[in-house]
Amino acid sequence: GAGRGDRGLVVFGDFGQASGEHATARLLDRRPQVDAIFAASDMMAVGAMRALHRAGRRVPGDVAVIGFDDLPIGRRTDPPLTTVRQPIEEMGARMTGELLAMLGGSSAPRCAVLDTKLVLRATA
């Protein structure tokens, strides 16, 4: 697909809003025609949207933005943030069960892959 293997399209951050803003500014310097951003967290996506706005790029008209986490802030951004929802409650319950099993003498933690859900809003 388009962009695969293009290391210039990957910019690292720390999951915070300021980090998303700085990472997007660096990305725009490298690839000014970027038309989509998938951020590792909703807070980074919020920062990305700020940087895009400051650069005169419209979301989603010029650049689609998708976050990850489905935090409440994503419903309040303008436009509302498209994101990926994790099953937080199920993750917590499984981790607690694994910890209790290990404390009870179970030798190895089990691996589990939980379903995520794309939450379509207005940014993509």
Cα(first) to Cα(last) distance is: 18 Å
Helix-strand category: alpha+beta
Helix content: 25-40%
Order of helices and strands: HEHEHEHE
The biggest beta sheet is recorded as:
2 strands, parallel
Instruction: Give the CATH level 1 class of the domain at 7-86.
Output: Alpha Beta
- CATH third-tier fold name of the domain at 7-86: Rossmann fold
Could you give the order of strands across the largest sheet? 1-2
CATH superfamily of the domain at 7-86: Response regulator
| Count of distinct strands | 4
Q: If you had to describe this structure to a student in words, what would you say it looks like?
A:
38% of the residues lie in helices and 10% in strands. By secondary structure, it is of the alpha+beta class. The chain has a domain of 80 residues: Rossmann fold (3-Layer(aba) Sandwich), CATH 3.40.50. Strands 1-2 form a two-stranded parallel sheet. It has a two-stranded antiparallel ribbon with strand order 3-4. Helix 2 links the parallel strand 1 and strand 2. The longest helix has 16 residues.
Structural features:
single chain; alpha+beta
Question: TL;DR?
Answer:
Strands 1-2 form a two-stranded parallel sheet. Strands 3-4 form a two-stranded antiparallel ribbon. By secondary structure, it is of the alpha+beta class.
Furnish the topology, listing elements before pairings.
Blueprint: H1 17-30, E1 36-38, H2 42-54, E2 64-66, H3 73-76, E3 83-85, H4 88-103, E4 117-119
Parallel strand pairs: 1-2
Antiparallel strand pairs: 3-4
Helix pairs in contact: 1-2
